[in-house]
């Protein structure tokens, strides 16, 4: 059939069910965006392309449906870099559309020209450039298929002078691949190891959430073994939180119960996880990874198996199918060794940690430092971060989707939320970008309009995304609830300064005159400030009700004392030693 290249492109998007695009409008993409409304594709015009990418990530993670990132060639596309790398480490299948400078002028250093393929080559799961207008459908279908199969963002680069050309083309059907159940021998060996284990432990990662039926399959396997189930860092939704076998998240500010239980393991099933360092680093002073345990690692990407931990059995496959295959091959006596004692230990360890967590009001200082002590004395009537998180838990609906930004106050909250199902906890992941919390929860709400959503961010990280308040109040945008922890500092960096740089606070202080609630009001949204636990619980309850009943967006600015939790990188930081010495007197004269 004869059609224009932009018609062919949009028809291929329709065939693949891609209904949402996020970005900022530009002339290089206008031939296709012009027909988006007619095609049933909604273009969400954001305040910044970086936030647009986070919105796309949030939408796809909350729904499982692919969305699209698109913007003007050159600077519009370069603004996507952080979001694309974030999606890559979040294993989010996204379509990155990068209109390119025209073929006839590329290489001349023309207006808004940049090497867009080189820019993303180590940030996407796959990339391809359209070489001829007649191949636009073929390339687009393949890029979409690769994003799904490799579970990551994939890029199609198309010169802008390939639009508005007439071609004769057939619209391709989606290219689908059946996911692997893992190798026969490796699944059998895994089942044998778990059948003979005295203290098996399962560690669920993102792959369990992304795999269809992954949580249910891991639950059936855990129940057959009565094995405690931990989850990786920022993957609190990878197992039902109310289940008696759920032990909580490992890693930074995670669950002591999970750490204590996995330390006893003789066999660990790492299901759908690349075993990233933040999911296995010591926490609360506990070096919990069981060095002598046999490790079974399951991942769809063979390059990730055995990369961070010694592995006894590696299985390349889909988490749900592999878990089902292992369960089917367990021996009749699997899990029987010490079953009753193990179940009792799980229950007692969880109960002890729950009581400890509920009584934790303040952050400790390292020996030789006094910042947290001083912070409490400076504002004795202000909430601590842990008080705020307990107040939030009192109002947060069980079915809510939440997002968390990077930063100290958000990280302190890692041990608190749990969920009944997957695709509920959006976090920036191991690339660790600031500015993720607000845009990602907006994307989630676009995808799940009937579910309450709450975003979280510290005031430093929120400042990177604050301009999105100018975009999300428009009539066709959904109402969301955003909490900003306001302690007037870059907390993670300030904790580093207290530990390793003698309280030399370079670049850590924020403007105390800024009022984020006031900025929200100036943008036509609702903004409130709270100072007590009761005010926070009431404000969050009201905001969620108004979000669901009247599509109201509310920003809750939570005033906190300046207590600081654990540093992110004890593994990477140390106190510097000055050798030559530095003096301002050595500065060249003006």
Automatic annotation (TrEMBL):
Q: Which domain of life is it from?
A: Bacteria
Gene Ontology, cellular component aspect:
acetolactate synthase complex
Q: Which GO terms describe its molecular function?
A: acetolactate synthase activity; flavin adenine dinucleotide binding; magnesium ion binding; sulfoacetaldehyde acetyltransferase activity; thiamine pyrophosphate binding
Q: Which residues form a coiled coil?
A: none
Tell me any Pfam family this protein matches. Answer: TPP_enzyme_C
Region (Disordered), start-end ranges:
355-375
Xref: PROSITE patterns: TPP_ENZYMES
| Keywords, ordered alphabetically | Acyltransferase, Magnesium, Metal-binding, Thiamine pyrophosphate, Transferase
Listed GO biological process terms:
isoleucine biosynthetic process; L-valine biosynthetic process; taurine catabolic process
Q: Which residues form the Thiamine pyrophosphate enzyme central domain?
A: 187-324
UniProt-listed InterPro entries: DHS-like_NAD/FAD-binding_dom (IPR029035), Sulphoacetald_Actrfrase (IPR017820), THDP-binding (IPR029061), Thiamin_PyroP_enz_cen_dom (IPR012000), Thiamin_PyroP_enz_TPP-bd_dom (IPR012001), TPP-bd_CS (IPR000399), TPP_enz (IPR045229), TPP_enzyme_TPP-bd (IPR011766)
Q: Which coenzymes or cofactors are required?
A: thiamine diphosphate; Mg(2+)
Q: Which residues form the Thiamine pyrophosphate enzyme N-terminal TPP-binding domain?
A: 3-118
Q: Give start and end of each Thiamine pyrophosphate enzyme TPP-binding domain.
A: 405-558
Q: EC number(s) in its UniProt entry?
A: 2.3.3.15
PANTHER family attached here? ACETOLACTATE SYNTHASE CATALYTIC SUBUNIT, MITOCHONDRIAL, THIAMINE PYROPHOSPHATE ENZYMES
Which NCBIfam families would you find in this protein's record? PRK07525.1, sulphoacet_xsc
**What does the sequence similarity comment in the record state about its family?**
Belongs to the TPP enzyme family.
What's the protein called, per UniProt? Sulfoacetaldehyde acetyltransferase
According to its UniProt entry, this protein's organism is Cognatiyoonia koreensis
